[in-house]
């Protein structure tokens, strides 16, 4: 059973080595997709033990996940974990994330920041962006999840093989959720802890996510 962690990264020299070091004992392979960083992200990721591929232009996190997931499947992954490069996720949550798949109880597992484990979500994200995104998921897609935008997920090989990410930008989170349910995957949420070192999603960025979610509904 090969477990592969896919990490999209853009200008993450400060965190990437720590993230990879923390993951190495928990997975069989780490694939870093450097989305055209202008720093030493690729160099440091390779030195830390990751398999590194690089986009020649910046295409967005969704595109990086598409590249990394396809490569993980090509390299024989049985379970694929999507994990961020900014050291906000906890590597120690991985065993709980993959257990439902290993036990045959789920095809896909989504990490949730709203299931009892305390995460220091920024106020705007907690009280505005997340409730609106949760409402859009419920009204537009008929999906009820506690966390509508978590980037920490584990996919079985079957689930990942049927998942074709089209949104290059940040709305890929809802696209992935929508397609997991559309493809009749068994989806489970498990609690995760997220530590925000800084808050990179401005209010305008939150509105962009909401706009992209509405567009996603219109094209499906």
Write a structural description.
It is a single chain. The protein is of the alpha/beta class and 220 residues long. It has 8 helices and 7 strands. It has helices at 16-23, 41-48, 61-74, 94-102, 123-141, 157-161, 172-182, 203-218; strands at 3-9, 29-34, 51-54, 79-82, 108-112, 153-156, 187-191. The protein has a 7-stranded mixed β-sheet with strand order 3-2-1-4-6-5-7, with helices on both faces. Helix 1 (16-23) links the parallel strand 1 (3-9) and strand 2 (29-34).
Task: Summarize it.
The protein has 220 residues and is an alpha/beta fold. Helix content is 41%, strand content 16%. Strands 3-2-1-4-6-5-7 form a seven-stranded mixed sheet, sandwiched between helices.
Number of strands: 7
- The neighbouring-strand order within the major sheet is 3-2-1-4-6-5-7
Distance between termini? 34 Å
β content, as a range? 15-25%
**What general form does the structure show?**
globular
Q: Let me know the largest β-sheet.
A: 7 strands, mixed
Number of helices: 8
**Structural class category:** alpha/beta
Q: Are there runs of 5+ residues with pLDDT below 50, and where?
A: none
List the helices and strands and how they pair.
Blueprint: E1 3-9, H1 16-23, E2 29-34, H2 41-48, E3 51-54, H3 61-74, E4 79-82, H4 94-102, E5 108-112, H5 123-141, E6 153-156, H6 157-161, H7 172-182, E7 187-191, H8 203-218
Helix pairs in contact: 1-2, 5-8
